[in-house]
Amino acid sequence: MKKQAEVRDDNIVTIIPEYGRQRLLSYAESFRDLADLFEGEEETPDSDETGMIVDRQDYLWQRKLQENQELLAEHLKETAHIMAEVAKETCLYRPMGERRFRQMSRILRESGISLKNFFEMEHKDGHTEISLTMKYMGDKYMKLGESEQISVDDVADFISVAMNVRLCAAKNSPMYLTRNYNTYYFQEEPAYHLLTGVAKAVKETEKISGDNYSFYEADTGKMMILLSDGMGSGEKACEDSRRVIEIMESFLTAGFRMESAIQMINGALSAAGSEQNMSTLDLCDINLYTGECEFVKVGAACTYIKRGNLVDRLSAQNLPLGVFGQMEVESISRTLQNGDYIIMLSDGITDALSQGIGEEVLPEIIGRMEYASPGEIANQILAYCIKQSNGQIRDDMTVLVTGIWDQTEDCNS
Fold first, then answer.
1. Which of 223, 241, 250, 388 has the maximum number of C-beta atoms within 10 A of its C-beta?
2. What residues are paired with 136 via a beta bridge?
3. Measuring CA to CA, how many Å separate 101 from each of 55, 97, 176, 183, 186?
4. Nearest to 186 by CA among 156, 222, 165
5. Quick one: pLDDT at residue 283?
6. Rounded Cα–Cα distance for residues 338 and 405 (Å)
């Protein structure tokens, strides 16, 4: 459910009323104070006259304790940051003029919809959101109690015509109008849309893949692609990688920054103290309004961006999640164009290529592919890699292909 905004005279509003805003800021300050308690100075271990540590076991235990305290402090500070950001979130709140309100009301009334309020909100990130408070009255010839419904997507089409801009229902918006007044939110439709394809092969001695993936709509106009390869194979590897994907989605939905979410998951796996918990994480964050894309790789195989016959290879030199308590999160930024393909792979693909002509030729193979369907590209890459390993599948193999298209170009062509 959307939070109700508190209106101010200058039309700049906070998303949360003043009382709730102050409480969130107070909670954030408490979490920062608590984090400070875990960031004490490092204790110097006892040593003898030669400078050797007297009790090495005690030193290692103290060191591990300090690392865990530092991780906890970082997590507390990130939670405080999110609370403060939510408390300070504002938007420009503009009521529509009387003439425009009457025009919109007339258009909706023709479809049995009663309009009560009509506002436009401009958020700090620049995107515009339309809010309509309305209810569905139904056709005047319908009998009372009949269950005919009108979808929010239909309403988006109606108001798109009236406002001369393509609008879509905001994420998590109800699917249908009800017989009671409710507020519904609409946003400008993103310029880009995606098509995806997946090809997978399970290690020949196992029944279930240790790789897991997700195409996750983080918000309207923002798509996340996640791929995780659990250490080893089989059910345990599958459970480890599935848990990484699910927790990552949960953190991003809650508002954690991408790098902080990764650090928190890494710290939790590291604290568990089991090498079997290690998993890779390959993440692609696409802004469908601008085409800007951010890649974050944690122990993952290379990613490729295909633009015609040209192929851009993206890689990062770091270890999987859970190896160390603190890690360097590397991100790579690119701006995508109409017709680009993003190709993400699990380690099984590169291992298979090493049995044949090697991973170095993969960009050339991808560049020569003329398929338009992401599914066809994924299947061809998988088939090629299996052929390079003489038909043997020594590890789980996953290929994710995402194609991006500019809807505005499609409309103009």
1. 241
2. 113
3. 77, 6, 22, 15, 16
4. 156
5. 95
6. 5
Contact 191, 159 (CB under 8 A): no
Backbone angles phi, psi at 341, to 5 degrees: -125, 135
Q: Point out the residues of the chain with pLDDT beneath 70.
A: 1-19, 21, 38-56, 64, 68, 86-93, 123-126, 139-148, 220, 272-277, 325, 409-413
- Looking at 278-396, which runs of residues are DSSP E strands? 281-287, 292-298, 303-307, 310-314, 331-335, 341-345
Q: Which residue has the tokens 């101010």?
A: 8
Residue type, 173: S
Q: What integer pLDDT is reported at residue 141 of this predicted model?
A: 41
Q: Which residues pair with 196 in a beta bridge?
A: 402
Please, which residues bridge with residue 331 across strands? 296
Instruction: Name beta bridge partners: 285.
Output: 224, 294
- Max CA separation in the chain (angstroms): 98
pLDDT of 398 reads: 97
Cα gap 149→138, rounded to integer Å:
8
Helix (H) or strand (E) holding 104: helix 98-109
Q: How far apart are CA 322 and CA 246, in angstroms?
A: 16
CB 108 within 8 A of CB 154: no
Q: CA 102, CA 98: separation in Å to the nearest integer?
A: 6
Render 259-292 in DSSP notation, one character per residue.
HHHHHHHHHHHHHHT-GGG-B-EEEEEEETTT-E
User: Rounded to an integer, what distance in angstroms lies between the CA atom of residue 133 and that of residue 362?
Assistant: 53
Compute the distance between CA of residue 3 and CA of residue 13 in angstroms, rounded to an integer.
Answer: 12
* Burial of 254 per CB tally in 10 Å (0-12, 13-18, 19+): exposed
Alpha-carbon dihedral angle through residues 264, 270, 272, 278, given to the nearest 10 degrees: 100
**How many Cα atoms are found within 13 Å in the side-chain-facing hemisphere of 128?**
10
**Cα(375)–Cα(371) distance, rounded to whole angstroms?**
9
Q: What angle do CA 141, 146, 149 make, to 5 degrees?
A: 90
Are 278 and 241 a contacting pair, CB within 8 Å?
A: no
